[in-house]
Write a structure and sequence with these properties.
about 35% helix, two-stranded parallel ribbon, elongated, about 90 residues, single chain, 2 helices
Length: about 90
């Protein structure tokens, strides 16, 4: 699937990022009409928070977000997951 990142630089709590992720998931749940058929799109989101999940190494933050995204996918898709150190195991 396609991957993208969103940088939220004005949040005050990690839960703010979760709310944004949930709004995107809710918007993606609607079927997309294409060539006379409805396509079902799923979205899984991995969330990392700076500086909680890393210093100023952007690549490390993105890798951790990717790990969290796969946690969300394994939970059934159309979900988000925060990075947790247990993801490193």
């Amino acid at each position: 699937g396609d991957e993208f990142i969103i940088v939220l630089n004005e949040i005050t709590e990690p839960q703010d990022a979760a709310q944004v992720a949930q709004k995107i998931i809710d918007a993606m749940v609607e079927p997309v009409p294409c060539a006379g058929k409805d396509l079902k799109v799923t979205m899984s989101s991995g969330i990392t928070v700076y500086p909680t999940h890393g210093d100023d190494d952007v690549q490390a933050l993105m890798k951790k977000a990717d790990m969290a995204m796969y946690e969300a996918k394994s939970a059934g898709r159309n979900a988000y997951s925060f990075f947790a150190s247990s993801n490193l195991d």
